[in-house]
């Protein structure tokens, strides 16, 4: 079985992280409705209960022994407050009653380690490696240790594809992006000879956002651009997949 296996129809995967089987998701963005209300004037009823129950259901369904969130557990850049704090606290309590919880720190997770660090494990911004799997949010360059993994998992991008039919209609769907990492790009960043890197030709897996309200990068639309500092230069190649497993091929030609 692959070290990282997406769950059909879900923005989530099962991964072998060391000796444990983990449920892995990215970009939960707890409290996003409050931000949409105050920043954009968009009134949406909170989906906090739906998000939590969906995560708990996936934990139960898969028999996962750990939850790993690839960054942006919360939405607010600074310390979580109000509705967001309440959602985070309820979610953290519910998850840790079942399994250990690891958060790969994202750019929206500023105060989470201080508020919930006694209950969840928070990795450094440049990631951590668990056995053959490296995890990080993706807003920073990965550490050399993460690059020594067989698979590197990130979030941050919220990858999506814009699909257009023969009569000009279009829709946007969340997607997975998978491809091999480029050794020379990371060696140059680390200022080392490429031959010195502990390199296992790792695959990059870019996770779709768990929160469907958080927008995304249309990876097949020219001019959209990537958010991660090592994309697209750090990819040798990349293929897009829909949540149902449909392989779309080279993400640049979808």
Automatic annotation (TrEMBL):
GO terms for molecular function: hydrolase activity. Residues 21-160 form the Calcineurin-like phosphoesterase domain. SUPFAM superfamilies: Metallo-dependent phosphatases (SSF56300). InterPro entries: Calcineurin-like_PHP, Metallo-depent_PP-like, Pesterase_MJ0037-like. CDD domains: MPP_PF1019 (cd07391). Pfam families: Metallophos. It comes from Halogranum rubrum. This is Putative phosphoesterase.
């Amino acid at each position: 079985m692959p070290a990282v296996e997406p769950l059909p129809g879900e923005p989530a995967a099962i991964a072998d992280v060391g000796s444990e089987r983990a449920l892995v998701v990215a970009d939960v963005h707890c409290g996003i409705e409050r931000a949409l209300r105050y920043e954009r004037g968009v009134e949406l009823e909170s989906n906090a209960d739906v998000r939590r129950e969906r995560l708990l259901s996936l934990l139960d369904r898969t028999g996962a022994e750990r939850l790993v969130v690839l960054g942006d557990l919360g939405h607010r850049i600074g310390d979580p407050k109000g509705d967001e704090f309440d959602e985070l606290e309820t979610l953290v309590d519910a998850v840790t009653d079942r399994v250990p919880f690891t958060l790969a720190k994202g750019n929206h997770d500023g105060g989470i380690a201080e508020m919930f660090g006694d209950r969840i494990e928070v990795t450094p911004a440049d990631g951590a490696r668990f056995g053959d799997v490296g995890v990080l949010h993706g807003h920073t360059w990965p550490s050399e240790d993460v690059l020594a993994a067989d698979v590197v998992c990130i979030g941050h991008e919220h990858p999506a594809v814009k699909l257009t039919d023969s009569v000009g209609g279009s829709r946007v769907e969340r997607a997975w992006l998978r491809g091999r990492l480029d050794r020379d790009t990371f060696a140059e960043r680390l200022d080392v000879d490429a031959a010195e890197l502990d390199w296992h030709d790792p695959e990059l897996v870019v996770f779709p956002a768990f929160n469907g309200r958080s927008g995304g990068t249309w990876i097949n639309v020219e001019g959209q651009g990537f958010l991660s500092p090592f994309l697209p230069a750090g990819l040798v190649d990349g293929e897009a997949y829909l949540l149902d497993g449909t392989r779309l091929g080279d993400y640049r030609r979808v």
